[in-house]
């Protein structure tokens, strides 16, 4: 994990911060809070000066609500001797994922950002999961996914280069049957590679010639799976598929990687609009589906 220093000019409203210099001695050390409520076991993390200070699970487990999230943040701050007033930014995983967990996380992050007048950064959950694989799956294609219910998964594909940098290979994510995701053999179906070539040709994705060649070469290898659903499926797939599972410690999304991607965005002067930031739901809520059926 990179260690960077960030000096920035503060305004009365911190949402308007501007980077002024990097490296050397820092006048103000950036404190960042990150929330991850996509998975059933949510986590919160504290970043300071580009380094993870502490990550903690929500307590009690499997309860992603305002009643558990805020006390978990308070406990995190207590252990670090932090206060809300010291925060410079808040980051949150925005999905794809389920309705309840994402709504709680995004609403809490936006409330904190509004109350403290600090920047808020929404991080794609699948991107954060891929970030976690940056040190273990170099020069490989990886696919991360989140349970989309009804035996479906919301998944995306990435290339991780030799330095551990993540390259997203599609504009968004797909919601597909889990069985198709796990059994989509590159040797028998070249459609994914052709789709990414099409994305590159029409300018949706831009790679240098060398990076593009490396991505094409990486497709010749079996890609790596990473998702919380692997725990349920590991006894239902062949040994050949099992050996392509990422290490189990990376299966669930983690707030530490949400924090890392958010910190890197802040170094590039990137934040999100407080009012327009919203979750990426993997599918409509049950109420929305019933309303659509009635109107249809």
Observed structural traits:
296 residues, alpha/beta, Nucleotidyltransferase, domain 5, 2 domains, 5-stranded mixed sheet, 10 helices, 33% helix, globular, disordered N terminus
Description of the molecule:
This protein has helices spanning about 65-80, 100-115, 125-130, 180, 190-200, 210-220, 230-235, 240, 255-265, 285-295, and strands at about 5-10, 20, 30-35, 45-50, 50-55, 90-95, 120-125, 140-150, 150-160, 165-170, 175, 225. With about 300 residues, the chain is of the alpha/beta class. The chain folds into two domains: about 5-125 and about 255-285, ATPase, nucleotide binding domain (Nucleotidyltransferase, domain 5), CATH 3.30.420.40; about 135-245, no CATH class. A five-stranded mixed beta sheet has the order 5-4-3-6-7, with helices on both faces.
Enumerate how many helices there are, as a single number. Answer: 10
Distance between the termini: 50 Å
Taken as a percent bin, the fraction of beta residues is 15-25%
Order of helices and strands: EEEEEHEHEHEEEEHHHEHHHH
pLDDT averaged residue by residue: 81
CATH fold annotation of the largest domain:
Nucleotidyltransferase, domain 5
Low-confidence stretches: 1-27, 186-190, 200-204
Helical residue percent? Answer: 25-40%
């Amino acid at each position: 994990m990179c260690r960077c220093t960030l000096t920035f000019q503060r305004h009365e409203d911190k949402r308007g911060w501007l980077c002024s210099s990097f490296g050397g001695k820092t006048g103000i050390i950036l404190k960042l809070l990150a929330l991850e409520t996509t998975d059933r076991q949510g986590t919160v993390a504290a970043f300071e000066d580009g380094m993870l200070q502490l990550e903690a699970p929500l307590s009690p487990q499997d309860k992603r609500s305002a009643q558990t999230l805020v006390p978990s943040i308070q406990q995190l701050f207590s252990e670090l001797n932090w206060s809300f007033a010291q925060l410079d930014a808040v980051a949150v995983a925005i999905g794809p994922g389920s309705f309840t967990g994402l709504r709680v996380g995004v609403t809490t992050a936006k409330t904190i950002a509004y109350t403290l007048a600090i920047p808020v950064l929404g991080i794609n959950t699948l991107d954060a999961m891929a970030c976690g694989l940056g040190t273990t799956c170099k020069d490989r294609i990886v696919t991360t996914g989140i349970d989309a219910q009804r035996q479906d998964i919301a998944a995306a594909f990435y290339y991780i280069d030799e330095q551990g940098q993540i390259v997203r290979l599609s504009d968004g994510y797909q919601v597909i049957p889990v069985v198709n995701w796990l059994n989509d053999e590159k040797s028998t179906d070249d459609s994914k590679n052709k789709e990414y070539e099409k994305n590159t040709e029409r300018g949706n994705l831009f790679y240098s010639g060398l990076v593009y060649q490396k991505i094409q070469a990486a497709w010749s290898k079996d890609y790596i799976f990473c998702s919380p659903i692997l725990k349920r499926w590991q006894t239902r797939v062949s040994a050949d598929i099992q050996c392509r599972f990422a290490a189990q410690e990376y299966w669930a999304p983690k707030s530490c990687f949400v924090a890392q991607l958010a910190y890197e965005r802040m170094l590039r002067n990137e934040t999100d609009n407080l009012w327009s930031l919203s979750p990426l739901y993997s599918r409509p809520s049950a109420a929305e589906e019933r309303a659509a059926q009635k109107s249809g």
